[in-house]
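Good morning N.,

You mentioned wanting to compare the apo and holo forms, so I went ahead and generated the holo version with zinc ion. This is what I fed in:
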Amino acid sequence: MVPSELANALAEAGQRMDRHGWVPGSAGNLSARIDDTTIAITRSGVHKGRLTAADIMAVNYDGSAVTPGTKPSAETLLHCQLYRLFPPIGAVLHGHSVAATVLSMQGAITFSNYEILKAFGFSTHELDVILPVYENDQDIARLAAYIEPLITRDPPIGYAIAGHGVYAWGTSVEHAFWRLEALEFLLQCELERRRSK
Ligand SMILES: [Zn+2]
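and this is what came out, ligand included:
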């Protein structure tokens, strides 16, 4: 159901996220597009540091499990939404780092003049890039409905959920990991900068 190379790439990405401390407890979820009807995503409640290919399952674009009886990650609908809205997206990674959690409690985050912004395809560092922050909501369908017009109107480099964590994406699992790493680097820089003010 899930191609083994995708399952292995997601399992490895989860372990790498764990080594960075971005997925404490069973936090975070990872996914990749399989085709135009199904998505590979982490099962609910699995520790990402112990993630294996067997913990990756297939879901339909409405978030339902392809194999009944298996439970996908609680935030599956947010992943499905990104694949549905943006055809170039091949993988989505979500973590709960300290920097993302703390900074997102202070409202939208602006990254100004950081060289690493070029990792998102910008040709210069001389710009202000906003990371939108959405209010947290345990009703994921309602949260997805709230987010949809906002990211459609102005597609961001990623987004944060207040007091919760960050979503990043890319054309492949590896590309999504690079972008998440760049985003986490920016968040960490911003946290340090605000602390030293
Ligand atoms: Zn989460």
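The first helix runs from residue 4 to 19.

Happy to go through it together on a call whenever suits you.

Best,
F.
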